[in-house]
Design brief:
globular, FAD, binds flavin-adenine dinucleotide, single chain, ETF_a/b_N, flavin adenine dinucleotide binding, Electron transfer flavoprotein subunit alpha
């Protein structure tokens, strides 16, 4: 029977696209599997990974350790390197065949390229760059609450309603949340009429579960038959070149010392102080976008809505005002320490410890006292 994304009742289970490069799983995949586990538990369905590559069975079990029940593995030399054509074909064919209800991708370069292409082929919706996912009351119930005279108990009990002649289960839906209007509000997005509901999720936002070795042993690995030939692929990967300079690993860091425009009177000196403080803490240097835009530091250091989302054990903000777009990337840190000479700076609203003062005086004292401790 022809695939119909509007036949929502035919879809089941939560899927995560498991991104690997050169046979190594990307950290975002484990975050998504962990988050997918929560959604699958709430829906009472299975969590499945979809893994594409060449001889990647060896890394499939790891996914079970983070919560996957099953992994669909598609091995082929044609899938060794990522190409939009090949990956789109295999994923969309698999979705048409097996029909997952929810399909998640990391908002990495590959995910941002692949997910929209798959969504268009599947005639479904995609919510890009999500920062939060939950199973929630679908929009229809909220609409009914506001627009109808139906009693709350009757709305609560609603299971299936007809929309454009199709039956839709309105007792549950996935709510996808993402920043909108430059981060000034958080938008809740539903995709109630089409399946799978698809989302890309920002790396570093979802927390990875503890690895469970027993679960990794129990995960079911499946190899569905699939068709892919060289003629399906219009691009050829000639060479993969590694970035010459090692980029700063903000997402994996426990301690981050970030600089803002407050270092402007001595940029070099300010960055050096941040590096020294990061070194005594065993952490790395981050920054606000103001410093990146000014060319004082490279873009891989940027924290915030258009940079990285981090949740280290300790985040130190030096001379950063605390604009909403910066806070969007760091406010879930376990402990926030802010140094700012303006006692009304918004960064103090999210700080656990605030020091009002000139960073060029405060930071050397901080470094000395940490060294002495
Ligand atoms: P400022 O706002 O200029 O603050 C400098 C602070 O330093 C002030 O609070 C000042 O009191 C303090 N200060 C000055 N001198 C000293 C001193 N000697 N000692 C101590 N304190 C001092 N921003 C991001 O950071 N990340 C993003 O991802 C991001 N994405 C954006 C996306 C969009 C769509 C838009 C519109 C904006 C985005 N921004 C982002 C920019 C954001 O709005 C702010 O402009 C930016 O965060 C400001 O950086 P800042 O705090 O370093 O500078």
């Amino acid at each position: 029977m022809a695939f119909n994304s509007a036949d929502t009742a035919a879809f089941k289970n939560v899927w995560v696209f498991c991104e690997q490069r050169q046979g190594k799983m990307m950290p975002t995949t484990f975050e998504l599997i962990s988050e997918g586990r929560k959604l699958a538990d709430e829906l009472g369905v299975e969590l499945c990974g979809i893994l594409l590559g060449d001889n990647v069975d060896g890394i499939a079990k790891e996914l079970g350790g983070y919560g996957a029940d099953k992994v669909y593995v598609y091995n082929s030399p044609l899938l060794k390197d990522y190409t939009t054509d090949a990956y789109t074909k295999v994923i969309t064919d698999a979705v048409e065949e097996i029909k997952p209800e929810i399909l998640l991708f990391g908002a990495s370069n590959i995910g941002r390229d692949l997910a929209p292409r798959c969504a268009a082929r599947l005639h479904t919706g995609l919510c890009a760059d999500c920062t939060h996912l939950d199973i929630d009351m679908p929009i229809y119930k909220n609409f009914l609450r506001e627009a109808s005279t139906l009693a709350e108990e009757r709305i609560e009990k609603l299971g299936t309603v007809k929309i454009n002649g199709q039956d839709h289960d309105v007792s549950r839906d996935i709510k996808m949340t993402r920043p909108a209007f430059g981060g000034h509000l958080m938008a809740s997005i539903f995709c109630p009429r089409f399946r799978p509901a698809m989302a890309t999720v920002r790396p570093g936002v979802m927390k990875k579960r503890e690895f469970c070795a027993d679960c990794a042993e129990k995960v079911e690995i499946l190899h569905p038959a699939f068709e892919l030939s060289a003629s399906d692929i219009k691009t050829e990967v000639v060479e993969t070149v590694k970035a010459a300079k090692k980029l700063v690993d903000l997402i994996g860091a426990d301690f981050i010392v970030s600089v803002g425009r407050g270092i402007s009177k001595d940029v070099e000196g300010g960055i050096k102080l941040a590096e020294e403080l990061a070194e005594v803490l065993g952490g790395v240097v981050g920054s606000s976008r103001a410093c990146v835009d000014a060319g004082w530091i490279t873009a891989d250091h940027q924290v915030g809505q258009t940079g990285k989302t981090v949740h280290p054990k300790v985040y130190v903000a030096l001379g950063i005002s605390g604009a909403i777009q910066h806070k969007a990337g760091m406010q879930d840190s376990e402990c926030i320490i802010a140094v700012n000479k303006n006692e009304n700076a918004p960064i103090f609203e999210v700080a656990d410890y605030g020091i009002v003062g000139d960073l060029f005086k405060v930071v050397p004292e901080l470094i000395e006292s940490i060294k002495a401790a």
